[in-house]
Amino acid sequence: MKRREFLKLSTTIAGAAMTVYMPANWTPARAAAKWKVGFSQCTTLEPWRVQFNKDIQAEAKNQPDVDLVITDGQDKTEKQVADCENLIVQQVNVLLISPKESAGLTGVVEKAIDAKIPVIVLDRNVDTKRITQFIGGDNVAIGRAAGEYAVKLLGGPGKAAGNVVEIWGGMGTQPAHDRHDGFHAFTDKEPGIKNLLNNQSGDWKQDKAYNIMTTALRNNEKIDLVYGHNDPMAYGAYLAAKDAGRDKDIKFILGIDGLPDEGVTWVSKGQLTATFLYATPGAEGLRQAVKLLKGEKLQPVITLPTMLITKDNAPDILKKNGLL
Questions:
Q1: pTM for the complete prediction?
Q2: How many CA atoms lie within 13 A of 316 on its CB side?
Q3: Membrane-spanning regions, if any (predicted)?
């Protein structure tokens, strides 16, 4: 079996240490009671989010004392805020939330804390330290690993050269900024690398990335590398290049998510050069909520591991998931 590359991830978010924040006078629910845990998902329009829900639902089957309530923000900040307000009215024992936008969900998170409901934030953080716990990947580390790999593909440190198209995720989300900053920590050291676009947001969507790439192809005769902030956007860019008859000219298209039936499969087929396995925090989020309700102490941050996937180890992952 091929050796798998794992990233060593930190336990800080955006460079700042975090502490556990508990609502004033909060105590766990009585053990004899059935706990109600609310989960506010920002959208189910993205495949990774669908897997996210499956993971938390699967864990809920292992937690007989938990009544899990899942809401879908339908990719709208206003809808997700309303969902959270409804969960507060229901007096859930713990609120799990994966925000569509950091700033847009901060107010309702603080409202939950004020209502003595602990809040565990998953994947995308909010703009307040008044949360009980954060669980997610280290997106700066992911971006840095992507940047280092891109430099290697474009000729190596000190020699790398090429035209790069970067397709952002949501501009209002911290992971997009972290993946951008980490990537540029490596690529900006290389004078031979030229960035062709200025902060083009695909909002994590394949169709939007397709349109961005179509325009980039029309305006640029030479594109060497595409860096997509998730797999659907990277694949959308690939499809645009293929439709334009230029997919063979682009050395590298990177994605992040690593779903076996999407990103890993696309890497195995040679459509994407690499992806990063970015596990959803759904199951861990529910496990931590139960731990809290049992009166156990939580870590302020749980950083989930990630893994670089290339054509070398993609077949192993597909076999493990029964897809090869």
A1: 0.84
A2: 12
A3: none
